[in-house]
Amino acid sequence: MEQNLVNAELTISDAAEINTALESIHSKMPFLISLSAQDRVSILKLGDGMRPVVEISANVITEHPEIMPGTFNCEDFKKDFNLMKALEPLSQKLQLLKQAVDDTILAAGSDSLSQALEVYSEVKNHKDKIPGLNAIYNEMKAYFSRKRNKNSDQQQTPPAM
Known about the structure:
By secondary structure, the chain is an all-alpha fold. About 65% of the residues lie in helices and about 0% in strands. The protein is elongated, with a radius of gyration of 29 Å. The two termini are about 50 Å apart.
């Protein structure tokens, strides 16, 4: 069974350039934060249903800032709103890129495992013919050994009477 979902190479030089570019992107957004799991659960979340309310509010703040109490910071609202709007398309592109990277890792891992199984088969077939392969075979076969479940052993053996 031959499988080749992906056939590519990422050079050390290209990987270093990509890493530098990612660091540069991150440095352009020093305001990024990391929320705790508790914060993620407890904060208000803007869903599609309430998005129009936020957009209408942004227009109200721009056209009629005088209606807001002095304790309401219109500039902070505008900053948050504009930041959200600016980050959304970037997030979508980053998500697509991350999904493509994850899918490629999955495919390359699958290809590698498929090929490793073929290597294992050949090691198994030649272990007694080529010096040193028996030790490698014993090392590899440990990953394929099946451990018996205690319950399945008990179910297979009828109780003594």
